[in-house]
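INFO batch 0412 | record 1 of 1 | parsing
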Amino acid sequence: MTFDAKAPPMLSGTDQDRLARWRRHLAARGVTIPTAEDFLAFGRLSTLERLRPVLAMSAPDEVGPLRLAIRQLKREKSEKARRAGPARPRGPRPTLTVGLEALPADWLARLEDLRAESASRPAASRRFSRRPLGPSRQKHLEHVLRVIAKERIEAAAPVVLDDASLRGWFAAARERGRALAGLSAELELLARFVEPLDAPLARRIRTERVALMPLLRRKRKKKEDKLLATGLTLGRAWAMAEALLTQSRAAPRGSRRAMTLALHATAIALAGVS
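INFO prediction complete | emitting tokens
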């Protein structure tokens, strides 16, 4: 097979440069039929992933060894990440909360009651009565209580759950951009928590939660806002879908790229008509 440094006209200028560098790399190695080792010597994982769609259009018979090289680099990357362990969180530690040990004794006792209730209730009985809080919801509740405690401590106010502390927590959360849907769920958690400690307060919390329902029904979801912000029309949707479908057909048959492009084309077409 002979190589031609001139790229097909369907390639962009950047893709033409990328293809030309690949051809020069093969020429320097004296190679006419590239193997996975030639690709590994050409560049890093990101370089090879950018090269793959270029070769899919200009030299499809070279994509096979390229995919082997990419697979090897991904395997090595995954193994390196596994040996390194969990990534450390970046940036300063969050300051919205206090530690669990800073919560009042009656709050800690109530949290322990909720944990015991969840552990002692058999699964079969949960179908016929109010279900206990699962571990993830318990953690969520703990976080909300730690936020409220932090706000009360910073205000030099008693760390208690009452109308004033809940109004302050709700207002601060809204100022930080918390969505009403999330706050509604947290109000129900707080009502469950406080019910044995202050039943009238639990009823007032649930009354406030019910008052939010009309606002929740009228508010669009974030994904709907993002779709509207794109200005996607039916004509644009079909044009984008057809372009992606054309790229899918140009990719190696049965490859992940071909299937991904076809799925994206379908999703955009459906978004345009829904």
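INFO post-check: The chain is about 70% helix and 0% strand.
INFO record closed
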